[in-house]
From TrEMBL:
The lineage of its organism: Bacteria, Pseudomonadati, Pseudomonadota, Gammaproteobacteria, Pseudomonadales. Residues 58-180 form the Peptidase M61 N-terminal domain. InterPro entries: Peptidase_M4/M1_CTD_sf, Peptidase_M61_catalytic, Peptidase_M61_N. GO terms for molecular function: metallopeptidase activity. It comes from the Bacteria. This is Putative metalloprotease with PDZ domain. Residues 279-358 form the Peptidase M61 catalytic domain. It comes from Permianibacter aggregans.
Length: 481
């Protein structure tokens, strides 16, 4: 049985010593295959919860299925009865009080398939344990006090990597509940290094099988950090980020508040960097477009994901990380995704509606969003004689909205597009974002000095040898080549 007798003593200490505590405190003991959590906080209401529970066919209560030995006690050390719900909540018999909560988390999440992938939940490796806050911390559901303290107890030789502010050895201060939950962390003896750009730093955690390939990773990250900062006219809104890379079949990644996790299918090499390097750059770009610059609603997932797809590809090409052939292949992939999502999956929904069911409508959200970005690029550049496009739009949005902590709407995108380029995308959005019209890529690419040959979902993108003077100018202004 995982329960540790020494934590009976710790639980008693917490109950008495922290009875008057004003801020939440977590003490987390990590072992090679499980975690034990002792926490004290005030419950404003009557419910404890795991947030963002991802229900699966095998796990109807998602991450809550890995919680064991949950005990809740009041400030006097008396047990508080509770009833578990099917979606990762625990309703207390008595609420609105300071409680001490203890429980175990069995690290078997990687044995199951998750809607968004294990890289957005938790998994175990030979180097240690990966967790998101969603899978680790049971917290007050209605409201949680700020200035949260988290301290980890780890096996010898292990280290806790988090995006939070360190206050001691494996001890951190977390501002609020969102910071606690919407982040990734790693406990173990994996390879670590820190990249600095201006006044912020990025900690890179690599599974040991990738430690000797760290140069391949930094050759993608360094230019993306530099040129994304230039594009948005600002560093990310945080001064510290965490990237965790391990081996996994999905080859996908997930972005969080101040961190992202990535799985690579097999070894990391120069040859396959075109795949995992793109995923890494995409997730890094989300620190600006997605975290700092956030949509007001899921209906704008097409912009968060599709525009990120397009701009990540453009930056990697424009600044020499990958070549023109790779970039044209990325444009072809965007077209193919859109065709699959719209016609082969028979998704009779708009791009905005697809965002409400992102995982199932992934091809349409990403592919359709990228195609709208290309069309927007072409029209904005044409209207401004090549001077303003999607990059300038993102910069304007970031400066006006993100730095003021304002989420964006479709109207914001339309308004700023017109303001900086003279092109009003209202008809484009009405037909292809809010509406269900088919968006042809032939004319937008021609305006960008490119040529499309396509049949069904197959596509080939090349330079347009017959491009006129304006298209040639727009091509140079957009792609920098």
């Amino acid at each position: 049985m995982f329960y540790r007798k020494k934590f009976v003593f710790i639980l008693a200490m917490l109950t008495s010593a922290f009875a008057q505590a004003q801020s939440p405190q977590f003490q987390v003991e990590v072992s090679a295959d499980s975690v034990h959590v002792e926490a004290q906080y005030t419950v404003h209401g009557k419910t404890l919860a795991l947030f963002n529970v991802q229900q699966t066919e095998q796990l109807p209560n998602g991450q809550a299925g890995f919680i064991r030995n949950l005990v809740v006690k009041d400030a006097d050390g008396k047990p508080v009865k509770f009833k578990a719900t099917e979606d990762g909540d625990w309703n207390l018999a008595r609420g609105n009080q300071t409680v001490t909560v203890s429980y175990d988390v069995v690290a078997e999440h990687g044995n199951y398939r998750w809607p968004a992938g294990e890289e957005e939940v938790a998994y175990r490796t030979n180097d240690g344990l990966f967790f998101t806050g969603y899978a680790l911390f049971i917290v007050p559901a209605e409201k949680m006090d700020t200035d949260i303290s988290v301290k980890f107890s780890l096996p010898t030789g292990w280290q806790a990597s988090t995006p939070w502010r360190a206050t001691g050895d494996n001890q951190f201060q977390v501002y609020n509940r969102r910071e606690l939950l919407v982040n990734a962390m790693f406990f173990g003896d994996a390879h670590r290094e820190v990249l600095k750009e201006g006044d912020y730093e990025l900690e890179l955690v690599l599974g040991k099988n990738y430690a000797n390939s760290s140069k391949l990773f930094t050759e993608v990250l360094r230019p993306m950090l530099k040129h994304s900062t230039e594009l948005f006219g600002s560093a990310p809104k945080r001064n510290r980020y965490l990237i965790i890379v391990n081996e996994g079949a999905s080859g996908d990644g997930g972005a969080f508040e101040g961190s992202f996790s990535q799985l690579i299918n097999g070894p990391a090499t120069e040859n396959n960097r075109v795949v995992w390097g793109y995923v890494m750059a995409h997730e890094l770009f989300h620190f600006w477009n997605g975290v700092g610059l956030a949509p007001a609603a899921e209906t704008e997932e097409w912009f968060k994901e599709g525009v990120t797809d397009y701009m990540t590809s453009l930056l990697l090409y424009r600044h020499g990380v990958f070549n023109e052939q790779w970039f044209h292949k990325r444009l072809e992939t965007m077209y193919t995704r859109y065709m699959i999502g719209k016609f082969y999956q028979r998704a009779n929904v708009s791009l905005q509606e697809a965002g409400l069911d992102k995982q199932n409508q992934r091809a349409l959200v990403y592919g359709g969003g990228a195609l709208v970005a290309i069309a927007l690029e072409a029209e904005m550049r044409k209207a401004s004689n090549g001077e303003a496009g999607v990059a300038e739009l993102l910069r304007a949005m970031y400066q006006e909205l993100a730095l003021q902590n304002k989420p964006y709407t479709l109207e914001d995108i339309r308004r700023l597009s017109k303001q900086i380029s003279g092109y009003d995308p209202a008809p484009l959005f009405a037909e292809h974002v809010s509406g269900k019209g088919y968006l042809s890529l032939t004319e937008p690419l021609k305006q960008l000095g490119l040529s499309l040959a396509a049949f069904a979902e197959e596509a080939t993108v090349t330079r347009d040898a017959a491009a006129d003077e304006l298209a040639s100018k727009i091509h140079q202004k957009t792609f920098g080549l």
